[in-house]
Amino acid sequence: ASVVRNKLEAKIVEQQKVFSAFKKEHGNTKIGEITVGSVCGGMRGMAGILYETSKLHPIQGINYREKDLYEIKEQAPRAEGGREPLPEGVLWLLLTGEFPNEQELKEFQSELYQRGHLSKDEERLIQAFPKDMHPMTQFSMGVMACQPNSKYAKAYRDGVHKSKYWETTLEDALDVCAKVPRIAGLVFNNSYGHGKPMPDQDPSLDYSANYARYLGIEDKNFSELMRLYLVLHAYIYFIFINFISDHEGGNVSAHATHLVGSTLADPYLSFAAGMNGLAGPLHGLANQECLRFLLDFQTKYGTKWTEHDIRDYVRDTLASGKVVPGYGHAVLRQTDPRFMCELEFANHYIHDDNLVNLVKACYRVIPDALAQTGKVSNPWPNVDAGSGALLMHYGLNQFDYYTVLFGVSRALGVMSAQVWSRALGLPIERPNSLTLNHLMKKVKNE
Ligand code: AMX
User: Fold this and answer.
1) Among 149-153, 299-303, 405-409, where is mean pLDDT lowest?
2) Which InterPro entries match (predicted)?
3) Which residue minimizes the CA distance to atom 22 of ligand 1?
4) Which tops the pLDDT comparison, 65 or 3?
């Protein structure tokens, strides 16, 4: 059993009582109204999902278990010499609401290492995918290739009592989180490895560093090793902090995972569904668009651009009826704290990179330019404004792969949420749908 299990069980028992009393008392209490706008507008702004692990706040940005990103950066355990939160510590937080102590973290890291192994058959299956298949398709299929080992699905077949669903859901959730870097690494190797052998998991490295190794970001030159170690860590922590694991339950990847999970489908089936949603251009692909915007700018103005050039470029973009990618947000009403983390990271680790400097200059120029249009609700940058440029800096220029990085990190959020959904016994989701005709009649009270 997992080292996190006992801690989690105590919290779950407590929260189950709170939840059931709350449901009984407030089952009929109104918390909002549904408008025609919400029905026609993709349910935007409509509260309809119970999701325990995180909440998106218009001003503070994302909160994990009531902690904002800055608090997480400050309080989360880090690797020796590292500056960024360890994903293992963040996963523990998402599950339990607390950070692990040193001993717990150590045991949890070694547990995830053990769970991160794929069988020979699973590896072979993933390696047999066509090299030109989109990395997200491979990733989702790779997760599905591991699904036959679902412990939850087996327990369900064996007739486990529903009060115990969460226990094997936890087992699967941890397995999925532990295995996704390996699956994503195999996909990378398959698509871009040019036949190079896939490195094995290295027990001396943590979760993120192993993933970086699969992506080929390592160097055997010993004299370089220390410097590289830090860079490598910095790089990979950047991935996790910026494609931050969770962004409440209403975004497509989280909601798709949650919805499929509500049928009591196991965590592999649910997570793969979420990843298929993440593969959509309006969701996980936005950071590619943003990078293209910056690269096109460089193509036009070279590397000796000025802030005046940026202003012109934004004006031309708007005049041609396009949006400025990386700016604005459906919920946030301030600079995305995830962007601030990117900026802070870049200020510390990256000097003299023209593309990164362009990101910084855009931050000085674009909010004003967008505000002048008078219609943009939020002229500030979101996470996508900086992430692509940072990845490019580290030589990760395979654009099609960026969404897979996003997917690996999202596993931590959506899988912890699924443990809680089963623990609270949430029912199958089944909202009503209406035809336009019905909706029109409802408006007239017919
Ligand atoms: N550039 C130009 N115009 C913008 C804009 C931007 N970055 N952001 C918003 N606007 C425009 C809208 O297109 C809309 O114009 P319209 O009235 O002519 O249709 C008007 O401002 C009002 O929109 P809004 O209320 O500010 O935003 P929204 O909630 O409808 O949309 C979002 C939010 C993110 C889709 C939008 O800001 C946008 O398209 N941004 C650029 C793309 C982007 O960065 N996407 C990634 C978001 C982060 C993520 O989830 N990964």
Assistant:
1) 405-409
2) Citrate_synth-like_lrg_a-sub, Citrate_synth-like_sm_a-sub, Citrate_synthase, Citrate_synthase_AS, Citrate_synthase_sf
3) 376
4) 3
In the annotation, is 26 catalytic? no
- The Cα 58–Cα 87 span in angstroms is 24
Taken in order of first residue, the domains within the chain and their CATH numbers are 286-393 (1.10.230.10)
Tell me: the pLDDT tens digits for 317-359? 999 999 999 999 888 899 998 899 889 888 988 889 999 999 9
Question: Which sign, positive or negative, has the C-alpha torsion 146, 148, 153, 158?
Answer: negative
User: Whole-angstrom Cα distance, residue 67 to residue 55?
Assistant: 10
Ligand 1 centre to CA of 323 (Å) is 7
Mark whether 283 is an active-site residue. Answer: yes
Q: Would the CB of 304 count as within 6 Å of ligand 1? A: no
pLDDT tens digits for 282-305? 788 778 889 999 999 999 999 999
The one catalytic residue in 57, 117, 134, 283 is 283
What is the whole-number distance in angstroms between the Cα of residue 46 and the centre of ligand 1? 19
Please report, for residues 35, 107, 322, 369, 389, the alpha-carbon distance to residue 366 in angstroms, rounded to integers and kept in the order given.
34, 46, 14, 5, 17
- 413 within 8 A of 368, measured Cβ to Cβ: no
